[in-house]
Write a structure and sequence with these properties.
single chain, 2 domains, signal, Branched-chain amino acid ABC transporter substrate-binding protein, 343 residues, SBP, thiamine pyrophosphate binding, alpha/beta, thiamine binding, 15% strand
Length: 343
């Protein structure tokens, strides 16, 4: 009998050890770099890691990098949870990279946050608009920008920064100029023409890196840019004198979104982490630290005097682009962009 008890005790101990080891297995989260990564590491990860006894690993990259990574690791996914902009998220879902989310508190979330079949959920609403250096504008006695058309003004020659087309902010700008020229997502030529002839000459660099973007402003090389409200708020919170404008024609909606990565052996905590990101506590943190318009109705968001947040009426007025059309054409547009605009 003693032998059986000893064997059972050993088996129980082994099971407990293996459960502890499993809990310690890293949860790999892929998401944006720069100030977003800082907030994730400093404000979002610690409480979850402590509560669940898990170490979180962060892989930084823009949305198209993350989708490319999921594609490259198709047969052996290393990422457990992916945070991606809405456009590339539709691609990730179509390619089968996202598993359905379980236990989503739908009654607490705004309808705009939800994706078909719960394959993803938004974690924050961002407005794509215009960032400018208030100090430089005051010194030069320039009025703050009001319109997308202002970016064509020759006084901004070599002062303007726009992320490239494989970045959602750059894509929003291209669609806006196509619409202004009588086209749109289904007729993109006018957008390319405006970039080539009128906006391009003012561009210092098409910069994808958030760190480089803030560097270009800090060093005085750039004074105006197309960027997202969340990024601008994080920059303004460092004390740098930047302002953010919702252009008169409308700012564009970007839904920062998350999905649990579909894999043969999903991490047991992937679902819990996705649900944690849309909880009122985390939504309040992402709103107040990063400037996201919250997707949870119970979040407490304070508006920011420097960078008006996409909440209330401002959120309701944001322009949503036709992602189905964009995603069908995006590869061709990227090639054309490299050929014609960013030579």
């Amino acid at each position: 009998m003693g032998k059986v008890v000893a064997v059972l005790a050993a088996a129980t101990l082994a099971a407990a050890y293996s459960a502890a080891a499993g809990a310690q297995q890293k949860l790999v989260v892929a998401g944006y770099g720069g100030s977003f990564e800082d907030i994730m590491r400093q404000e979002i990860f610690p409480a979850f890691g402590k509560q669940h006894g898990v170490e979180l690993d962060y892989v930084a990259g823009n949305s198209t990098n993350t989708v490319a990574r999921l594609q490259a690791q198709k047969s052996n996914q290393q990422v457990d949870v992916a945070i991606i902009d809405d456009g590339p998220m539709y691609q990730a879902i179509a390619l089968g990279f996202c598993g359905p989310i379980q236990g989503l508190p739908k009654d607490d979330l705004y309808g705009t946050a939800l994706y078909k079949d719960d394959k993803a959920v938004a974690i924050g609403i961002v407005a794509t608009g215009i960032m400018y250096n208030k100090k430089v504008f005051e010194e030069k006695k320039w009025a703050p920008p009001k319109s997308w058309a202002d970016l064509k003004d020759p006084k901004y020659k070599q002062q303007l920064v726009i992320p490239p087309l494989n970045n959602t902010y750059g894509l929003h700008a291209l669609v806006q100029y196509a619409r202004e020229g009588g086209g749109g997502e289904k007729k993109i030529d006018p957008g390319f023409k405006t970039f080539k002839d009128q906006v391009g000459p003012n561009v210092l660099v098409y910069e994808p890196s958030p760190g480089k973007m803030t560097e270009l402003f800090s060093s005085g090389q750039a004074s105006i840019a197309v960027w997202g409200s969340g990024r601008v708020k994080a920059f303004a919170d460092t004390g740098f004198p930047v302002g953010f404008v919702y252009p008169s024609e409308g700012a564009y909606a970007l839904l920062s979104s998350v999905c649990p990565v579909a894999k043969s052996k999903p991490h047991p905590l992937a679902q819990a982490f996705v649900n944690y990101l849309v909880s009122p506590e985390v939504q309040t943190k992402l709103a107040n630290s990063y400037g996201y318009g919250p997707v949870n109705k119970k979040a407490q968001a304070k508006d920011d005097p420097n960078v008006p947040m996409p909440i209330g009426e401002r959120a309701a007025k944001l322009i949503v682009i036709d992602w189905d059309t964009v995603n069908q054409n995006r590869d061709d547009w990227n090639k054309r962009w490299t050929r014609e605009i960013e030579r």
